[in-house]
Amino acid sequence: MRTLLLVDIQYDFLPGGSLAVAGGNEVIPLVNHLQPQFELVVATQDWHPAGHKSFASQHPGHHAFDQIDLHGLPQTLWPDHCVQGTRGAEFSSDLDQNRIEAIFRKGTTPEIDSYSGFFDNGHRKATGLADYLRGRGVTQVYLAGLAADFCVYFSAKDALEQQFEVFFLEDATRAISAEGYQQARADLRSRGGKVLTSTELG
Ligand code: VGL
Ligand code: ZN
């Protein structure tokens, strides 16, 4: 049993959003087309309280994309994004949501960031996604969405650690940084993840 995991297809990660990923909008028609090929479609949603500590605005003297130490973890500082209840946190209205059976929110704890749909960045708290997927009989996780080098990558890594077979749908993602994505891609392959394009979907 396989699932399509749609990561963070939210306005703030799309052109015009506060943390826009170049070409992010281009994945939407593709994932809409892919959804009927999966028995189960699940989504993640970045869902930060206002004033989240991953926001550069909470660290005077720092700027967006600076690296800091946050309670012992390396943290990239981001522009304010995906604040609960704002339009930027909503899924794009172009995304077909009718087949999404469950939505897992992340990044809700103010003091810790959460890239993966499975765990926060300190691996302290699970979202319940792994147990949900196992409960549905899923063994294979196909990933798409934004951003390839952050939330899609960290979700894929955790899915591998959780013993799922992982398929990274490369043409259905876009990255924040091209170099960061090349590293992420190599790392996933070294961990046994498969990187493929949607045309190779059987
Ligand atoms: C993401 C940075 C901060 C993502 C979320 O969805 O890739 N990136 N929050
Ligand atoms: Zn975030």
Q: What topology emerges from the helices and strands here?
A:
Elements: E1 2-7, H1 27-34, E2 40-46, E3 67-70, E4 73-76, E5 100-106, H2 129-135, E6 140-146, H3 151-161, E7 165-174, H4 178-190, E8 194-196
Parallel strand pairs: 1-2, 1-6, 2-5, 6-7, 7-8
Antiparallel strand pairs: 3-4
The structure holds pyrazine-2-carboxylic acid (VGL) and zinc ion.
GO molecular function, one term: nicotinamidase activity
Family: Belongs to the isochorismatase family.
Keywords: Hydrolase, Metal-binding, Pyridine nucleotide biosynthesis
Characterise the protein shown here.
- There is one protein chain.
- The chain has 202 residues and is of the alpha/beta class.
- It has one domain: Isochorismatase-like (Rossmann fold, 3-Layer(aba) Sandwich).
- The protein contains 4 helices and 8 strands; from the N terminus they run E-H-E-E-E-E-H-E-H-E-H-E.
- The strands form 2 sheets. Strands 5-2-1-6-7-8 form a 6-stranded parallel beta sheet.
- The radius of gyration is 16 Å and the shape is globular.
- The model has no long low-confidence stretch (mean pLDDT 98).
- Bound molecules: pyrazine-2-carboxylic acid and zinc ion.
- Its EC number is 3.5.1.19.
- Belongs to the isochorismatase family.
- This is Nicotinamidase.
